[in-house]
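dumping this here before i forget
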Amino acid sequence: MSTTCHKQSRLAMLLLLGCVSVGGNDSNAGENTQLALVVANKTTSEHTQPTSALSDNFEARTIDPTKWWMRQAHHGHYWIEPRMSRVARKSIAISVDGLVRGCGQSCQRNEIREAPQHQIKFGEEAWYSFSFRLTGATSTSRWVSGQWKQQSGGSPFLAQRFNRGVYTITVQDDDCRVVVASSDASAQNLPVTERNNSTTARIFPVAGTKTTCKTDIRVQHSANHVLPDPYRGWVDMNYRVRGGRNGKGLIEIWANGRFIARVTGSIGDKVAAGPYQYFKFGIYRNFTPGPATAYLDNYTRIRSMPVTTYVQGDNGDRQL
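structure:
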């Protein structure tokens, strides 16, 4: 089944409402976009506890503490930035430099997370939309800006990573990590285990756990699944997220209105201390001397939708 949706904007919420722009510039506002609609297995009515909505365009003078938990944010290193915005006037800026630590002498952390009263249960389906960009020094190793975590103390089950300056998205099955998308089609700047193409490994164990791992995670890519570079400008991200064990997990990813990948399988930790999950944003990286700043704008989380909307690539969706 297919439909045509009039292209009005590349902003994330239009995707969540069923209207997607495909690449190009906002000046192409009159262009029509052909979409493919795939009916999801479950509709929102099947959720016993519907996911509540949460949004913030960061246009206020200060960060809203009723929406964001600031305990891992460093005072003086985050602010509402009036000179940098995706759409309106402002965004939130979160920075690190040589003085910021937060997670030991060899680690730097400066992050905000969804406030506890807004956290949802792991396994509930939700759609996330936000715009972000990065400036400053890149890290030669671990760097995370945007992650979804369970109450487990472990690694995020979904993360935006920037190791060696390459934007990658990873999904995790307990201690087994899968690179599902990259801003570098060949990712030659990454270790071989972290590259994302059809000829090199995309699955590897989390550091310090074991030497090999197996997972039932499967990835379907669009014909053009290379991620945009957040160091070159704003990137509009959209995620459909439903964590789940025993093959019940589902994640779908769009960037700048372009469908990137659909991920299914066992997603998340086998054991967690509590039933909830939360989204975090900022900078979490191994110590790097140079300063860097992450900007976030137009954050929205809405309840599940009964259909998945994605762009059909010129050559169809490719399953790896």
